[in-house]
Amino acid sequence: MSYNLLKGKKGIIFGALNDKSIAWKAAEAAAREGAEIVLTNTAIAMRFGTTSELGAKLGAPVIAADATVVADLEKLVDGAMEHFGGKFDFVLHSVGMSPNIRKGVPYENLNYEYLNKTLDISAISFHKLLKVLYAKDALNEWGSVVALTYIAADRVVEGYSDMADAKALLQAITRNFGAIYGRHRNVRVNTVSQSPTMTSAGQGISGMDRMFDYAQKLSPLGNALAEDCADYIVTLFSDLTRKVTMQNLYHDGGFSSSITCKDIL
Ligand SMILES: NC(=O)c1ccc[n+]([C@@H]2O[C@H](COP(=O)([O-])OP(=O)(O)OC[C@H]3O[C@@H](n4cnc5c(N)ncnc54)[C@H](O)[C@@H]3O)[C@@H](O)[C@H]2O)c1
After folding, report:
1. Which of 28, 40, 97, 210 to mutate to test the pocket of ligand 1 (most atoms within 8 A of CB)?
2. Residue-wise pLDDT tens digits, 53-90
3. Who contacts 20 (Cβ-Cβ below 8 Å, separation ≥6)?
4. Separation of 246 CA from ligand 1 center, angstroms?
5. Nearest CA to ligand 1 atom 26
6. How far is the CA of 253 from the centre of ligand 1 (A)?
7. Ligand 1 center to 76 CA (angstroms)
8. pTM, whole model, 2 decimals?
9. Residue 264 confidence (pLDDT)
10. Pocket of ligand 1 from Cβ distances under 6 Å
11. Residue 265 — pLDDT band, cuts 50, 70, 90?
């Protein structure tokens, strides 16, 4: 059911790799709510994933960009402004990757070249994106930028390794850039801290199945699905949340406030 929450709004969605991706569901939900969208992902992800299928389904152009490359982000934002015929209203950063996790390198023995990549892809890319959006004055007043994070930024979740450090940096960038973007342009910047979710990135984390079950038991409302996350993101892009900024917003069925439950005791 559509509430037309994003009627007349336009935005860019990063990170729809396949139909399990949180970004895929967010793009579908944004389109359902009346938004026009530009999709983006890396050229490699576009070759191996199904981003273009989603583009065809939603009538959304797909522009390749590596989120760590400022020149790519500039081309993406220019391309989106050309497509939309001017400024736009929202951006979803749904991007993350850790070579240390991919290659099974344990946290106590991190490979620092890989760590730099983790931080660049999963956190610094958000600063680069905000910097390009700000410099080009690409977002309308009361625009909204959302990035996705995980509770391992705030508490220890063993196995999440250097992604936890990257998410802590992502949340800090959200606050610091959010202050500037809010004060000077009335643009919101927030992170959504999502439940463990069975996506390509999620399933790459060691012990994810057990974490998923544990979080499911501990969360009074159960784990939030990718579709639930998409609906929440839509509200953050809408005009109904115009004074929410610089926040890390838990979208986790109550997990972040629970330390135990009958099933676990
Ligand atoms: N799955 C979970 O349990 C979970 C929980 C909380 C937060 N998150 C976060 O949600 C976001 C989306 O992940 P997902 O779970 O939908 O997995 P996903 O694997 O579907 O999405 C990750 C996306 O990042 C893209 N990406 C990687 N490197 C990139 C780069 N250099 N430039 C541009 N894009 C790049 C990938 O191509 C992919 O589309 C990530 O930030 C992730 O950390 C996931």
Report:
1. 97
2. 999 999 999 999 999 999 999 999 999 999 999 999 99
3. 198, 199, 200, 226
4. 21
5. 95
6. 20
7. 18
8. 0.98
9. 75
10. 14-15, 17, 21-23, 41-42, 45, 66-68, 94-97, 121, 148-150, 194, 196-197, 199-202
11. confident
183: CB partners within 8 A, 6+ apart:
none
Give the tens place of pLDDT for each residue, 87-138: 999 999 999 999 999 999 999 999 999 999 999 999 999 999 999 999 999 9
Q: Contact at 8 Å (CB) between 133 and 139?
A: yes
Other CB atoms within 10 Å distance of the CB of residue 29: 24
The string of DSSP letters for 175-228 reads HHHHHHHHHHH--EEEEEEEPP--SHHHHTSTTHHHHHHHHHHHSTT-PPPHHH
Domains of the chain with CATH codes: 10-251 (3.40.50.720)
Handedness of CA 229, 49, 113, 12 (dihedral sign): negative
- Tell me the one-letter amino acid at 44: I
Beta pairing partners, 146: 92, 190
Positive or negative torsion for Cα 67, 71, 77, 83: negative
* HSE-up (13 A, CA, CB side) for residue 209: 0
Counting ligand 1 atoms within 8 A of each CB, the residue from 199, 209, 251 with the most, and so the one to mutate, is 199
- For 201-232, write each residue's pLDDT tens digit: 888 888 888 999 999 999 999 999 999 999 99
